[in-house]
Amino acid sequence: MSITTTTHLNFRGDARAALEFYRSVFGGDLSIATYGDFGMPPEAPGASNVVFGQLESENGFRVMAYDIPGEGGGSAANAGTTRRENGVTLTDQPFFVSVRGDALDEVQGYWDALSAGASIVEPLAASAWSPGFGMLTDRFGVTWILDVAASDTGR
């Protein structure tokens, strides 16, 4: 038996834009269904918002998203703040999205793309536990941790 865990992000009208942005970063196949597709009258407010969105790529990246009904405009629902002070991460967010790659150049590519319009919390650089670690909050209010898997050699 096996299971798959998929991050499901909640937005306030930005789910489509966020999913399209993430597809530009990670590639993959995007599926989007709107409230209108599921029977909401087309003239109703929010009918074109995303009720089901999923991005799935061959490299293993997968994320789902939707727009909270009745919520208007802005970034991810309940987006908080994250910052680094004195070597520790301080946040009021309930979760981060973590992406780990095997090679620094792979992770650097994702970092470069995700950082467009983002707030950098911790620049991507070598750390005590990884050849590359960085943290940012993207333009949609989602905080990402990107890192390179540490080699088990020599442990």
Defining key terms:
4-stranded mixed beta sheet, 155 residues, 15% helix, 10 strands, alpha+beta
Structure description:
This protein has 155 residues and is α+β, with helices and mostly antiparallel strands. Helix content is 15%, strand content 35%. Strands 1-4-3-2 form a 4-stranded mixed sheet, with helices on one face. Strands 7-10-9-8 form a 4-stranded mixed sheet, covered by helices on one side. Strand 5 and strand 6 form a beta hairpin. The longest helix is centred in the N-terminal third of the chain and has 12 residues. It is globular, with a radius of gyration of 17 Å.
Explain the layout of strands and helices.
Blueprint: E1 7-11, H1 15-26, E2 29-34, E3 50-56, E4 62-67, E5 82-85, E6 88-91, E7 97-101, H2 104-114, E8 119-125, E9 133-137, E10 143-148
Parallel strand pairs: 1-4, 7-10
Antiparallel strand pairs: 2-3, 3-4, 5-6, 8-9, 9-10
C-alpha end-to-end distance: 31 Å
Count of DSSP H/I helices: 2
**Alpha-carbon Rg, integer:** 17 Å
Q: What order do the helices and strands follow?
A: EHEEEEEEHEEE
Number of strands: 10
| Helical percentage | 10-25%
Question: How would you sum up this structure in a few lines?
Answer:
Helix content is about 15%, strand content about 35%. It has about 160 residues and is an alpha+beta fold.
